[in-house]
Amino acid sequence: MCFDDILAKLESNRLPYSNGFKAWVVDVRSFKPWLDAIKNCLSKEEMIRGCTITNKNAQELFFLRKGIARILIAHFASRHPCEITFERTDEGKPFIALPIPNCIYFNISHSKEYLLVGISENRDIGVDIEKIRQDAGHAVLAESVFSPLEKALYSSYSPSEKLRCFYKAWVQKEAVSKAVGKGISYGFDTLDVLIEPNKLHEEYNLLIEGLELPAEIMLRFEKDYVFAVCML
Hints:
The chain is of the alpha+beta class. The chain folds into 2 domains: 3-123, CATH 3.90.470.20; 128-231, CATH 3.90.470.20. Helix content is 34%, strand content 25%. The protein has helices at residues 3-11, 35-39, 44-51, 56-76, 138-145, 148-154, 159-180, and strands at 21-27, 86-88, 94-96, 104-111, 114-121, 125-131, 201-206, 215-222, 225-231. The strands form 3 sheets. The protein has a 4-stranded antiparallel beta sheet with strand order 6-9-8-7, covered by helices on one side. Helix 3 runs antiparallel to helix 4 and helix 5 (138-145) crosses helix 7 (159-180). The longest helix is centred in the last third of the chain and has 22 residues, at 159-180. The radius of gyration is 18 Å and the shape is globular. The N and C termini lie far apart (37 Å).
């Protein structure tokens, strides 16, 4: 099995952005025919973690997500997937530990069977993908996620619009927090993002307090998923 075959298939899942980064949204189930080859890319720790998952389907999804992300990052870094090792900052943001030719930033998110991988050179990146669920308790979460301005807008929308509005805000704020490197400690309610529920694709610059330059935000709804990318 040649990694070129996997990479060729992954290329068909690359998002149509060209402003300084690459990102892929992948239904990892479509890579199950190559599961054994993908598992061979994993670290010992990843294999041990995966083997503790007793549900076969969940275990396969874990291996596929970890392996595909590793293959994409290694290809971008001009390394073999097995050569890549990861570490985390004190805030939990992953980075490549092995010395590589260029400064490469990456971020990963997954929801159910879908994986989102973003990779950039010389700029921090954060990504988030979520499967839209009717029963997610978004109305309660909105109270802690939304800024005062966003709460006022949210209250004026219909139930279906509120659902899209919540997820639209959530993925953007998650992407921003991951790009900044703060994770869940970032104050979501201090950030105003675009939440108009009937705009299913957004690309804009967002001013963030404490940053000299605005962040670049890209957002898109696809079927019953929504995802966002933030570049700093």
